[in-house]
Every structure is written in structure tokens, then in C-alpha cells.
Write a structure and sequence with these properties.
This protein has 572 residues and is an alpha/beta fold. The longest helix has 17 residues, at 72-88. The protein is globular. The chain binds ligand 6R9.
């Protein structure tokens, strides 16, 4: 990997902006005629061909603290084995295969295997409840799902609504007698090694992954990505994460989220980097001890985690040797200036904010290593990316610091190609030649971008987007709920948490017990993140004449702000 004098991979940002071409990235990835553009192949076989067969690809620490290491060659063999298994089970290229697993090694091997086969991988959060799972897998007609004994129980409940789902593969099943019906146990480490698998000859436009994301209206939508996305993920990881051959890189994101795939699989492994994966979620002592034990040098995390670490204080930091750290990045929510300043003080390094979305597939605006970080700013557009802030007529605003709609000029390699089965909504995201991100931002005199807020009703809790509609639908399934609305209410740590407004059916009284029962109901059906932290009971909810819930009014009420124009309200 060539670095320039400054010691960073990116070197001069201005030069990179001036000289950027996708062809050059394509060349770096060795994409000559006849070479498959297959992400699964690029992240394993290609790296092995570059002489890194025995390099550690994955350092995996289990919940109990055991450590397993897998080389690029092992990852190549194990992903081959998954590809072959799925092929033998009759899965065809283009078909959707879901992964519903905790952060275990098979998650990574199966993901790469699905891609090698040319099928479309659909990563699911293991925290998803039966309904969240069912809505997504039914939407894409997933034909197979790879899961674990613990999660298979939840999947069983969702299965009656999933007629297309023909194959359930259960990994790490100690006791096969506990499997039900057609579920099949599989252990990649016990299976015969598959030295050669003829990978699907993907082109840059071959579909690769379907990432479900929450929008303003309706149920979550599957953003469809293609194998060519690797060009964006490779080059952004190289220039933004600044990975060098000896780095140990740790992305704390779950692969149920796009970050855990673009920067927890594709980017780093396409560069032949060693990655750490912790099975456990956020536990400050485990996190710090993992950095110390595995000598983590580059760390990609999220503002909520950083704020939680701030809350834990500095004393705990002193108990660990974190001297291996050399570069820190963050994504998912606005990174508040205090967090940047705190990290500089406590770790001796600032967190570098990165902005992007499920739909963009890769980092679009960011602070670069070696460049001045303006605390609170998202940074500048990635080389090769044209960003702008647009006015209400979708024309670029040229005046500095004037907020508007954050937009990007299509296309770019990792741009989503479709919302699964929803062309109309996909097309509605493009206006006047721009992709409209749904965020508001402003650009300062020096070209730095500042996040102003979302331009829609989507709730961002701890970096995870929650669709109000999905919460509202789940609430309505509760026996006591007649009407429901969900909004985000400000929260010190998670930025926002879900708050629900509920009108009860007659015969039900608003009690503490009922409140808890409703909260738990949503937690189980959707996920802990989607669970309302607050429930406010109302006699009826504010609606437009056409019956749409006015979340704007509820948000204003929640914040104690003026309610504004409510002339379209039903009974006003
Ligand atoms: C990768 C990812 C995208 C939305 C995005 C914005 C918010 C992400 C941010 C940020 C402020 C940042 N967001 N990064 N807001 N500063 N650095 O997060 O994808 O789950 O699709 O969320 O998250 O609102 O539009 P996704």
C-alpha cells in the first residue's frame, strides 16, 4: 500500500480530489478482463494470491473470552464450503439468503460464501424479534436462512409467514436433536475442506447484498447493492481508515447494520487487513481489554458508544494500555464536539467523523487522517464524490452556512440500485439529477459539511434508524391499542429514543402495568432499540384530514415548542 510523505494513505486530499478516477481504483483491485468482480473472491482468494494466505484475517473473541484466529486461507476454504453447501441445497444465483446470527465466525464465512455463489446476502440483526424478521424476509422472498440454535426459536415463529423459505441451516448446533422439522445442522469446521469453488463470475452490476433500512413511510426497505460496491468500500477504507499492512482493525458495528458489512467485512478484507470481532456488544471493560490484548490500532465506532465511554470516565481508561491505537473513526449519528475533544484528551487521538448511509454503501463525507478535524463537522466529500446542499427547488445553495437538503450526484460505485420491489420509492429519492439523502446540512466557508438534522420522521437511536411506521404497526397489534404514533425524543446518550403516543381501545385504562406490557410487546416483536422508552396516553391522536398522523405536532408537544399550523387537523 503506497503512502505519501505525510504517512497517511490518502496523502494530499486536494490532489486526490483532482486526480480521482474509478478506473484507477479498479486497477488497484486487479479488475482486468476475466477477473471476477466477486466480493467473496476479492476478500479471500485474491488476498491469498497476494501472498497473504497465512496472515490472520479474523481475530474472534467469544462472549466467554476465548480467542480464535482464522487466516485468509481458512476464510477462503470456509467460505468455499458455505458456497458449496448452498449450491448443493439448490440455492441459485440472484436468490436471497438471510443471515440471522450473533457475531460468530460462521456469520462471516457464510456471508462470503453466499457472495461467492452469486446469491444475495440479507443480513439480519440477531436482536430482531419474530415480526421484524418476518417482514424483511417475506419482503425479499428469502429462500434460505443461516441461523443458530438460539435464534432458530425466533425464526420458527416467523416461518409460517415465509412460504419461500425452504432451507434453514443451523450453525453451532451442539445438540441436533433439538432442531425441528427441516432445519439442518452444519458446522463449517467439521465439514470437508473445499479447496476450489468456481465463484460466480459477477460483474460490477451483479446484486450482492440487501440491507434493510428504515424510511419515513411504510415498512423498512431493502437497499439492493452490487458487487461493484467493493470499489468504494476498498478505497474509502484505505484512505479514511488509513489501514496499513500491520494494523489490527476493529469495527464495533454489528453486521446487521450496513457499517458492519461495508467496514466490518468488505473494505478491510479487500485490503488484506487483520480484523477483530467481539461476540459481545458494548461492555466498557471488555472493549478496553480487547484493544489492549489484541493491540488494536484502528478503531471504527459510533457516537453513542463514545458517549457511553465518556460516561464511564477516565479512571477506567488508565487501567489499560491503549497505546496501540493510532486512528479513530465514528459513524451513525452526529458526533458532538465534546466527544471529539474528550477522545483527544483521554486517548490522545480525536475521533474522525464519517457520514454515509445504507443507500450510499460507503463513506461519502468525512474527516481525513492527517487533516485538521473541525469538532462537530462531518468533514469534506470523499474524492470522486460530488455533494451539495440544495434548496426547496432542489438547486444547489452557494451561500456558505445556509442549511438545506444534503444531496449527492449519482452515480458512484457503492450506490444502491433499487429498493427491493419498490421502484416508485427508489425513484422518489432522485430529484433534479441529485440523490436526496433525507438529511439537512450546511457547508461552511472552507467547504466543511455540518449536519443539521434529518429532513424526515425517521428516528435515529444510538445510530440505528427506526421507522415510526414499523413501531406504530407493532403497537397496533397490542390488544389495548386503538391508535398509535411514534417519534424520536431527545436523549443524552442515544441522541434519540422512541416515544409512543397511544390512544386506548374502550375498556382499557392507562396504567403503569399496561405501559410496561405495551413496551415489552414491541421489544419482543421488533427489537430492544425499537421499544418505546416512553409511552404517553392520549384520548386521540392529531391527524390530518386524510388521516395521516401528524408526528410534527407530537414532536413539538414533546419538546414544548409551539405547535405551529394545525389548520389541517381533523377536528380543529
Ligand atoms: C452508515 C449509516 C444513515 C443516517 C444518515 C444520518 C445519520 C450517519 C452520520 C449521521 C450525522 C454522521 N448519520 N452518519 N448523522 N453525522 N456522521 O449510519 O447508515 O443506518 O442508513 O443511517 O444516519 O441521518 O442519513 P444508516
Amino acid at each position: 500500500m503506497n503512502t505519501d510523505k505525510s504517512g497517511t494513505n490518502i496523502g494530499s486530499y486536494e490532489e486526490r480530489v483532482k486526480n480521482f478516477t474509478w478506473d484507477a481504483v479498479s486497477q488497484e483491485l486487479g479488475f482486468e478482463d476475466g477477473v471476477p468482480r466477486n466480493i467473496g473472491w476479492c476478500c479471500t482468494d485474491r488476498v491469498c494470491e497476494q501472498g497473504l494466505r497465512e496472515k490472520t484475517a479474523l481475530i474472534w473473541e467469544s462472549a466467554q473470552g476465548e480467542v480464535h484466529r482464522y487466516t485468509f486461507n481458512e476464510m477462503r476454504l470456509y467460505s468455499n464450503a458455505f458456497a458449496k453447501l448452498l449450491q448443493e441445497l439448490g440455492v441459485k444465483d440472484g436468490e436471497r439468503v438471510a443471515i440471522y446470527l450473533d457475531r460468530v465466525p460462521s456469520l462471516y464465512f457464510s456471508l462470503l460464501g453466499i457472495l461467492k455463489l452469486g446469491a444475495i446476502a440479507v443480513p439480519m440483526f440477531s436482536a430482531f424479534g419474530e415480526e421484524a424478521l418476518q417482514v424483511r424476509l417475506a419482503n425479499c422472498d428469502a429462500v434460505a436462512c443461516i441461523t443458530s440454535p438460539r435464534l432458530a426459536r425466533k425464526l420458527r415463529k416467523a416461518r409460517p409467514g415465509l412460504p419461500a423459505l425452504k432451507r434453514v441451516i443451523v450453525v453451532d448446533a451442539d445438540d441436533e436433536s433439538k432442531l425441528k422439522g427441516d432445519e439442518m445442522a452444519y458446522s463449517v469446521e467439521d465439514a470437508p475442506p473445499v479447496e476450489v469453488f468456481p465463484v460466480f463470475p459477477a460483474t460490477e452490476e451483479t446484486p450482492s447484498l440487501l440491507h434493510y433500512t428504515s424510511g419515513t413511510t411504510g415498512q423498512p426497505k431493502g437497499a439492493l447493492h452490487v458487487h461493484g460496491s467493493i470499489l468504494s468500500q476498498y478505497i474509502t477504507t484505505k484512505w479514511v481508515m488509513d489501514l496499513k499492512p500491520d494494523d489490527v482493525y476493529w469495527c464495533t458495528a454489528d453486521p446487521g447494520w450496513v457499517t458492519g458489512i461495508s467496514y466490518g467485512v468488505i473494505g478491510p478484507w479487500s485490503l488484506g487487513a487483520t480484523q477483530l470481532v467481539l461476540e459481545v456488544g458494548f461492555i466498557p471493560a471488555r472493549w478496553y481489554s480487547a484493544i489492549e490484548k489484541h493491540r488494536v490500532s484502528v478503531w471504527y465506532s459510533a457516537p453513542t458508544a463514545i458517549r457511553l465511554l465518556m460516561r464511564e470516565g477516565e479512571e477506567i481508561v488508565k487501567q489499560y494500555d491503549l497505546s496501540s491505537l493510532r486512528h479513530l473513526c465514528s459513524v451513525g449519528e452526529p458526533l458532538n464536539p465534546e466527544a471529539v475533544i474528550w477522545s483527544e484528551k483521554v486517548y490522545g487521538l480525536p475521533f474522525h467523523d464519517t457520514w454515509w448511509q445504507t443507500e450510499t454503501g460507503a463513506i461519502m463525507i468525512t474527516n481525513y487522517p492527517g487533516m485538521e478535524v473541525r469538532p462537530g463537522s462531518m468533514g469534506k466529500p470523499f474524492p470522486g464524490t460530488t455533494a451539495a446542499v440544495l434548496d426547496d427547488r432542489f438547486e444547489p445553495i452557494t451561500e456558505p452556512n445556509k442549511p438545506g437538503k444534503l444531496a449527492l450526484k449519482p452515480p458512484w460505485a457503492s450506490m444502491f440500485r433499487e429498493y427491493w420491489g419498490n421502484r416508485t420509492i427508489y425513484e422518489s429519492k432522485f430529484k433534479n439529477g441529485w440523490y436526496i439523502t433525507g438529511d439537512r446540512a450546511r457547508i461552511d466557508e472552507d467547504g466543511y459539511y455540518w449536519f443539521e438534522g434529518r429532513d424526515d420522521d425517521v428516528i435515529n437511536t444510538g445510530g440505528h434508524l427506526v421507522a415510526p411506521f414499523e413501531v406504530e404497526s407493532a403497537l397496533l397489534e397490542h390488544e389495548a391499542v386503538a391508535e398509535s404514533a411514534a417519534i424520536g425524543t431527545p436523549d443524552k446518550v442515544n441522541m434519540e429514543v422512541v416515544k409512543a403516543y397511544v390512544a386506548l381501545k374502550s375498556g382499557f385504562e392507562p396504567t403503569k402495568d399496561l405501559e410496561l406490557s405495551i413496551m415489552n410487546f414491541v421489544r419482543k416483536r421488533l427489537s430492544p432499540l425499537a421499544m418505546p422508552q416512553y409511552i404517553e396516553f392520549m384520548d386521540k391522536l392529531p391527524k390530518t384530514r386524510s388521516g395521516k398522523i401528524m408526528r410534527r405536532v407530537l414532536r413539538a408537544m414533546d419538546r414544548g415548542e409551539p405547535i405551529g399550523d394545525i389548520s389541517t387537523l381533523e377536528d380543529e
